[in-house]
Known about the structure:
Blueprint: H1 2-25, H2 31-63, H3 87-105, H4 107-121, H5 127-148
Helix pairs in contact: 1-2, 3-4, 4-5
Amino acid sequence: MARLVGNLLFLSALSVFAAIYRHDVQRLPRPQERIVVEFLFVIIMVLVALEAIRTLFQLISKHYPKEKTSDPPVTPEPQWYHWFLGKQFMLMLTSSLFLFLVPLLGFFLVSFLFLVLLNWYLGSRKVLEYVVFPVGFLCFIYGFFVLFLQVKLPKGILF
């Protein structure tokens, strides 16, 4: 049950972030830029609604189980607050910190720290995944977005 409540909380947070982003995009001057975000927002909301219905159905079916002929041993259900120790909450928390720290410290520094810490939390213990993947990924982002597309990424204290 804790996993199902965690899923509902994660879906709620995803919906809030999508709604805030949609609201922010409404200020763009050209309607062509808004159409793509509107389309993606509708798709995300439909998928979130379907997943929420499925999760609620699972929650209800756990409270009204079917009759069984033999009872299996009862295992205690984890408490609802155990979700805050799970990977979904940590991903949501680190993503929020990422969004908060990018304007302060810069995109590349925060992205590197985010990727390294997330790899560590998810159980990776290889140096290749700690250093090579984040550096390679950020080099790709720099080459493609900054050099090729000439997108200005947020600059921070260091660079």
